[in-house]
Structure formats: structure tokens, C-alpha cells
Design brief:
This protein is 30% helix and 22% strand. The chain is α+β, with helices and mostly antiparallel strands. α2 crosses α4. The protein binds flavin mononucleotide.
């Protein structure tokens, strides 16, 4: 897939098939993480890849994926990547998380996998199950798996005030402002 097509088609997934990704499929995602931008090239982020089903279920209980209410019908993510960084580091460290996630979610597409960036999670509960490196805290959690929904972007003039759950839960429409609306040209 052309890089620009992948960038434009990448969407967050929140409903997944029960099938688990293999470790080999996740290796290119971690390779993509290591090549990401980082502030002053410090490369301080560390990742725990959770492939264990029981541990993944535990994480699912403590993350807020905005549409994982109908757990009966769709499986929660079968894998997660916990992204950690040094405690007390500059808030701009979160920019490193963003650049890493972007690389990783594009790399995931080459394996037909989808991801979702999660910032709403119960850190204390999740930490109980995993031994973090000393002095490190959880910055973000990335859901990972085979998407059970298709999500498509459309050109929007304005963004809706509330994010509404789509009635057809398999096709999620994601409004995106046009480039002309988010860009000022200074020539
Ligand atoms: C910093 C950040 C935090 C996010 N946190 C969550 C989250 O906690 N739960 C969730 O379901 N989605 C989360 N998302 C995903 C966004 O909701 C999603 O990117 C947005 O709705 C646009 O959809 P798209 O990624 O399909 O283009 C987060 C995204 C970013 C960049």
C-alpha cells in the first residue's frame, strides 16, 4: 500500500475479532516504534507487549475504549502494548508517544492489524498485573488486533459536538475537517 494511502486510511479500531496476532506480526510494529522521532533522540519509551489472553482481559476491564459496550458480540482487543516512560519527565515526552504510535499503527496495517491509542485507563489496576521498570510509569496503552468493524473517514465542514455511537456498529463514520480548514498559508 502506498504510504499516503495508508496514512489516509488508518483508523482507530475498538471492536476486535477473537483471533490473536502472532508475535512475528508484532515485530515489525516494534521495529516501527524504534525508528520514530523522539525528543533529542533520547528514546526513553519502553513497551510491554501483552499477548497473554488472561492478562489482556484484565487490561480490557480497566481501559475505556469508547465503543466496547457490546462485549457480548465483539471480542475486546486480544493484545495490548503498554507504553511506559520515565516518571517525572517533561510533559512533552507525550509527543514521543504520539510519533511512536503513528509509526506503529501504520506498520500494523501491513499485517492487517488495527490499533487504538488509549489514554483513559486505570493505571493503578493495570500496574498490579505488570512489573514496570523501576522509575517508569504508564503513559498510554495501545489496543491491537484484527478489527471487527470498518471505520471510514468523511470530509466534514464541522465536527459534531458529541461523539455518537453509530447505529450500524460495523461501519463507523469518522468526520475529518478539510485541510483548508486546518491550514493557514503564509506566503
Ligand atoms: C492522545 C490520544 C488519546 C486517545 N485516547 C483514547 C481513549 O482513551 N479511548 C479511545 O477509545 N480512543 C482514544 N483515542 C482515539 C481517538 O478517539 C481517535 O484517534 C479519533 O476519534 C479519530 O479517529 P481515527 O483515529 O479513526 O482517525 C485517542 C487518540 C489520541 C491521539
Amino acid at each position: 500500500m502506498e504510504l499516503i494511502t495508508a496514512i489516509n486510511r488508518r483508523r482507530s479500531a475498538r471492536k476486535f475479532l477473537p483471533k490473536s496476532p502472532e508475535r512475528e506480526q508484532i515485530l515489525p510494529i516494534m521495529e516501527a516504534a524504534r525508528f520514530a522521532h523522539s525528543i533529542a533522540n533520547r528514546q526513553v519509551l519502553r513497551y510491554s507487549v501483552i499477548l497473554n489472553k488472561v492478562k489482556s482481559r484484565h487490561i480490557s476491564d480497566y481501559v475505556n475504549l469508547s465503543s466496547n459496550t457490546d462485549k457480548e458480540e465483539f471480542a475486546p482487543p486480544s493484545a495490548y502494548i503498554i507504553c511506559c516512560g520515565p516518571e517525572g519527565d517533561s510533559p512533552s515526552l507525550f509527543a514521543d508517544v504520539g510519533t511512536a504510535f503513528q509509526n506503529m499503527s501504520l506498520a500494523a496495517m501491513t499485517e492487517k492489524l488495527s490499533m487504538c491509542f488509549i489514554t483513559q485507563f486505570d493505571s493503578e489496576q493495570i500496574k498490579q498485573q505488570f512489573e514496570l521498570e523501576n522509575g517508569y510509569k504508564i503513559l498510554a496503552i495501545f489496543a491491537l488486533g484484527y478489527a471487527a468493524e470498518s471505520s471510514v473517514a468523511y470530509n466534514a465542514e464541522t465536527l459534531p459536538e458529541h461523539i455518537e455511537n453509530a447505529s450500524d456498529s460495523r461501519i463507523i463514520q469518522i468526520p475529518k475537517l478539510r485541510a483548508s480548514q486546518i491550514t493557514t498559508w503564509i506566503e
